[in-house]
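ok so for the tutorial part 2 we go from a plain amino acid sequence to predicted structure tokens. step 1 is just haveing the sequence, like this:
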Amino acid sequence: MGSLIIRCAEECSVPAGGSLSVDRVLFSDSVERLIHDNPRIEIVREEVRSLGSIPLPAIIATGPLTSPGMLTELEGIAGSGSLYMYDAVAPIISADTIDFSKVYEASRYGKGTPDYLNCPMDKTQYDKFYDALIAAERAPLSKGEDMKLYEACMPIEEMADRGRDTIRFGPLKPVGLEDPRTGSEPYAVVQLRREDLPGSSYNIVGFQTRLKWPEQKRVFSMIPGLENAEFVRYGVVHRNTYLHSPGLLGPDMMFLSREGLFAAGQLTGSEGYVESTATGALAGINAARLALGHDTLVFPETTCIGALAAYVTHGKGDVFDPMGICFGLLPTPKGRMRSKKMKRQMQIDAAREDFEAFIKEAGDLFAG
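step 2 — the prediction. this is what the tokens look like for a chain of 368 residues:
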């Protein structure tokens, strides 16, 4: 769909196997520069405290860290209020403090280029690390709040609480990561992913955490190769705000009770960078169409963007958790299928066919 965000992400990507990861600084600068240099865009750097003063159509894309003032405004529209969860981010370490004699380069099952650094553990090393991890002191939450966690960003220590082998079958899974120096798989593996294009820093993959900073230094330095690691950024936990979108937003991302007002990004309950980009593109296209006097667009539910919009806006009951795109959101193909692989291929084929047909029928997405 010609997304500026996706284009910038691809231009600022860093090696990460089959994942799309970006140099965050280059990516941010690239997006800001393109917006700043567009003569049709006026940038006003002020906090919006009242929705009543905003000319419509407009888009709210405040993200999960919505300010208290805007949150109050949104709660006035939502009626039932907004929800929250706790999210965590992983630490970043300086590349020149990694002991490369103890790590090896590899991607799981040898797929693609060996873009990850792998820190192997034997059973004794793993057991000592695990015991230290679950005993480490954790940062407190805001007073009076429960720890609502999103499974996809579960802090490593919270995951470890579920059992001694839980993280060994999760972020530290060694399957498909044979150590070329020994010819066998380690007992456990901690992976490091390049954080920036020059490779000056690395992210500890899957190590989102709310351990106190001195504890992160102590415990994570037990990982082979990271004994002398310097932390560029420690892991942190933060409160994410998102709307109870079912009954609040339509599948075109417009508020049902406020024509011309749209929501976009993680605020809608979409989880993931590409998903946030997709809801932003959908809200942007529809806001432009509305301004030009045309009907808004709703993508077929057989497409990824349509399925995500349907989930976000058509949930049932009181339970609503943020969701990223997955095969489970796409309609099940009719007829008998010999395997899951065949089923998924049929879903992919239907998504592509219906997406292309929809785009063709819509013509100019902005002018209608």
